Structure formats: structure tokens, C-alpha cells
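Regression test attached.
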Amino acid sequence: MLYKGYEVEQKDNKVYVKNIRDFDLTDIFESGQCFRWKKQTDGSFTGVAMDRVINIRSDGDLLILDNTNIDEFINIWFNYFDLGTDYAMIKETLSKNSIMKEAIASGGGIRLLRQDLWEAIISFIISANNNIPRIMKIIDTIAACFGRRMEYKGDSYYTFPKMEVLSSIPLEQIKKCGTGYRCKYITEASRMIIKEEVNLCTLGLMDTEDAKNELQKLPGVGPKVADCILLFSGTKFDVFPIDVWVKRVMEELYFSKETSMNEIKDFAKSQFGLLAGYAQQYLFYYARSRQIGVRKG
DNA sequence: TTGCAGGGGTCAA
DNA sequence: TTGACCCCTGCA
């Protein structure tokens, strides 16, 4: 069948999607936006998202999703992988800037995943003052302890726990998952969300600044984490999360000097506008893959 | 083997 | 504005 420009076909529990462009699994999964996808020895990725475990591989313009069906593709994965967005157009617009053009050339297959908002909130609270391998380990542990077990090809996988579950877990048990001092943020944020002390339902309707401020009511959520939550849950695309990598790459490529967060933020807003989030993602991936700004001993 | 430096945002003083 | 927070990795 044809679905929004893609040829989609199901065989057994696999979905084949043709006409895929501007899509590279490594660019997508290793660009710091998600923590639950793991590269397999055959080059495919297996991950848990949206309460499901799937395996995904690509071959030219063909995408193969294993352990799912057409209904789920249309209702879940099409949106999750942002297949309705024209990345060729985004890249063309951003490439008018020569520095961006080079960054895009190195990570041209990036897509911004539209991840579950609740999971994004907890994941990026954990991400603060932390590195990617440890973040992945902590989230895996939390899921294994409090999520629902699933089986795929003989291995166990676990869903990300619901807010009702996580908010009822004693602090000490959250801490045992390796969260460290962040455990109280997770517990308290869960409680506030359950009690609707922050309004998640209308975040998408708010002005971006208002949405950021709303999220920053949650403990453990500062400006950077709020930006990440909005961007990687597909809620707002004009944010520009500045972590150490983005700061370094901006200082090195655009400013040639040490620069304040505010100056970088203002510059990104004026330079990239509504596409700031996409620009950030290309720059982050570029900075990390080239180790830009890392002092070599 | 042990220990120490480095990495990484938010909070509270 | 600055120090404390937690744990993993890499390297003497």
C-alpha cells in the first residue's frame, strides 16, 4: 500500500517501507537524543520505545521494521521516526550557512525522534551532569526494575515504567538504579506530574518560552534539560539545547572565542530561527564525531 | 591493585 | 557566582 509517499508492505511480523530518504540509523540513534537503542552485530538496531520492542534495519531506501505491523507503523512509528517531515528542505535551508553545510554533510541522516514526553522528562533529568553510557545504564536498570517485561528473539526487554508506577517507588529503590543524587528529582517530578502541578497536556500549545518555564517547575529540570525535553519529545523545534559539546562547537566554529550561554542562544535564535532544534542536532553530532574542542593531552 | 582526574547540568548558599 | 552532588571510565 501507499502511505504518505512511502510504499509500505507487511510480511509476517515485519514491515517494509520504501522511498526512505535523509535517514541513517547511526546518525539517528547515536546523536544523543535517545538512550534505549542498541546497535546489533549485523548493523541493525534493537530498541524499546512506545511500550514495544522492535528491531530496525535499513538497506538503501528500504527500511525494515521487525516485530511490528502496518497498523503500528501508521499509528506509532511513522510519527516516532518523524517520517512526515521534509528533511531535504530543512537541510537545504540550513545549508545556506556554510558552517552548517559542513555539519550536515557529516550527519545528513539525522532525524529528530518524537519520543514519549513522560519518558523524555525522566530520561533528561537523569542526563544532567552525566554521560551517555551511564545514562543508558541507569534507564535500562529503571526499566528492568519497574517496567513490563517483553520478549524478543529469546531476550528480555522492559518498557519504560508509567508515571503511576514510578511515583509510588520509594526513593531508596530509585537510588539503587544508579541515579545518585538525582533520585529525589525523579520521585518529586513524578509526583508533581501525577498531581498535575505542571501541565504537560498543553505544552505544545504554549509559546516556547512558556513551555520551557512550565517544565522548569520540575526539580532537576533547568534550561538545558527543558530544551532537550521539548525537542526530543517532538513538542518544540525552535529550542537550542546548549550542552558542553554545542558550546564548544559554537565557540570554535562561529565565535572563535569563549562565549556566554546567552550570547550563543541569541545567535542561534537569529541565525536558525524555527529550525534551531534541527541545527543543534546537526552541530552536536558533528562536534562529537569530530571531537571538536576536546583538549588533547 | 589502587587511587585520582575528568566528564557532565542543576540547585542552594 | 560558586561549590556540591554521583558514578563510571581511563590512566598513572
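Expected vs. actual: identical. The beta strands of chain A are 2-3, 6-11, 14-18, 37-39, 45-49, 52-59, 62-66, 149-152, 155-158.
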